[in-house]
Design brief:
Elements (H helix, E strand, L loop, with lengths): L25 E5 L25 H14 L3 E5 L9 H10 L3 E6 L6 H9 L4 E5 L4 H7 L10 H13 L4 E7 L7 H11 L3 E6 L20 H14 L5 E3 L10 H5 L16 E4 L4 E3 L11 E2 L5 H6 L5 H4 L8 H5 L3 H4 L4 H8 L9 H9 L6
Parallel strand pairs: 1-2, 1-8, 2-3, 3-4, 4-5, 5-6, 6-7
Antiparallel strand pairs: 8-9, 9-10
Helix pairs in contact: 1-2
């Protein structure tokens, strides 16, 4: 596996991300490894609290640093963040510092009392994980055996309750189990009034690695997914769709599938440039999806500012060497711009951040027998 970066004459070409000031505008912050579910696709093997989880005092200090660095939005995650004893105090503190606060939850703990606490803590919106219709979701997200109510029903009840008080989005991790029901799921979520639907590909990390069966989408399945997303935007049957960095890359449909309110296209991963993540153990990375090999430092040993200001620690983005691109990415006319798509997806599927086979443009080229420019 390779995360090498090296020097090259090609680095004289300035990538668009090299022209912007490095500010961690958005932070993905996992508060705890504790979780009340046993999800088959969990990236972090969440179950019990990690021994190195930060104290509330330390969290507030880190929050101060985030504010000083220019952070505008913090996405609170876990594990299940609502099981952290510090989520409430941290959310209140982040709001006092002027940041937007989003909470990502499995939705099973959203009773009326919890929702009132979220509102009083100043949380701006929720994002609830829904990975399919009832049978598929229950097969994916497994609760304690003593639960009398299935996980899907608990999640749906919590989502409906939350919608009365807060904007609520849904995150769906797309995989072999739920691909065939995405259209039905999207229409169902739209009927509930969900404000956005975040779609992301499952990547072979965490518990997925030990499933022992095909779970991650094969590249040849991506064009049909792209068609579904593009059609959904036209017909507006679904909530507004947000695709994550795992989907797309400079294909003919790029603007159709990636745009939200304004036209957008893939310009490379911005982890370590505009995005920062903090693990429940206090490890800092550019992206929460990357493994420990990409850790930039630990908040138990250093300040967040010292870690962030050393751009070499995020060299897989800040000092990316396009000469190291391999496979289809190495031959692609837009390889220097795209940078092999999502580093986490590339790394876990090919063993290197310099080749990504889950690329819509690459699939188009294979179908039409040659490279084309956008």
């Amino acid at each position: 596996m390779s995360i090498a970066t090296g020097d090259s004459d090609a680095l004289m070409w300035r990538h668009p991300l090299g022209e912007v000031r490095r500010i961690p505008e958005r932070c993905i912050w996992a508060l705890t490894n504790r979780c009340n579910l046993d999800c088959i696709h969990c990236e972090t093997h969440a179950e019990v609290p990690h021994p190195d989880e930060l104290s509330l005092k330390k969290m507030k200090h880190v929050a101060d640093e985030l504010g000083e660095l220019g952070c505008q939005q913090v996405n609170i995650t876990g594990g299940e963040p609502l099981l952290s004893p510090h989520w409430e105090g941290l959310c209140q503190y982040l709001k006092r510092l002027g940041m937007r606060v989003h909470v990502v939850t499995n939705g099973t703990l959203l009773d009326d009392a919890m929702i009132e606490r979220l509102v009083c803590a100043g949380v701006d919106d929720l994002c609830v994980s829904v990975d399919g219709l009832r049978v598929t979701h229950n097969r994916t997200r497994i609760g304690p055996k003593e639960h009398a109510i299935a996980v899907f029903d608990l999640t749906l009840d919590g989502l409906k309750r939350a919608l009365r008080c807060l904007p609520v989005g849904v995150i769906t991790q797309i995989n072999q189990d739920n691909l065939c029901e995405l259209e039905s799921l999207g229409e169902f979520l739209g009927s509930l009034g969900v404000v956005r639907w975040q779609l992301q590909l499952a990547i072979p990390s965490g518990r997925i690695q030990s499933l022992g069966r095909p779970y991650v989408l094969a590249p040849h399945q991506l064009p049909a997914l792209a068609d579904l997303i593009a059609q959904a935007r036209v017909h507006k049957r679904f909530p507004p769709i947000e695709v994550t960095d795992t989907i797309g890359y400079c294909s003919k449909q790029e603007i159709e599938i990636r745009s939200r309110t304004i036209p957008m296209m893939w310009l490379g991963c911005n982890a370590g440039v505009r995005l920062l993540s903090i693990s429940c153990a206090g490890k800092v990375r550019g992206c929460s999806g990357l493994p420990s090999e990409f850790d930039a430092g630990s908040l138990h040993n250093e300040s967040l500012a010292d870690i962030w200001h050393d751009s070499r620690r995020f060299s897989y983005v800040t000092h990316f060497n396009p000469d190291l691109l391999t496979g289809g990415c190495g031959c692609c006319a837009l390889g220097k711009l795209c940078r092999a798509g999502c580093p986490a997806l590339s790394y876990y599927t090919t063993g290197t951040i310099y080749e990504n086979r889950h690329c819509l443009r690459l699939l188009e080229d294979a179908t039409h027998g040659g490279s084309e420019t956008l």
